[in-house]
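INFO batch 0412 | record 1 of 1 | parsing
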Amino acid sequence: IILYFLPPLLILMTSIDFFKAITSGDSDKLKKSSGDALKRTLAFVLLIMLKFILSTVLGWVGIDLCL
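INFO prediction complete | emitting tokens
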């Protein structure tokens, strides 16, 4: 369920942040918005890859992950 709602939520939140930064006209807010967008995108990618990362790490130990 999370994988269906996260991409549109990521796009919506990033668009809102950039819209606020552009309408304010402040270059510092625009830099902060781009940094936040990068952090959100990295968190999204890590969340998608979480199952693979967990199964790999636990596979080294010999524990089977049933997800």
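INFO post-check: The CA atoms of residues 21 and 31 lie 9 Å apart.
INFO record closed
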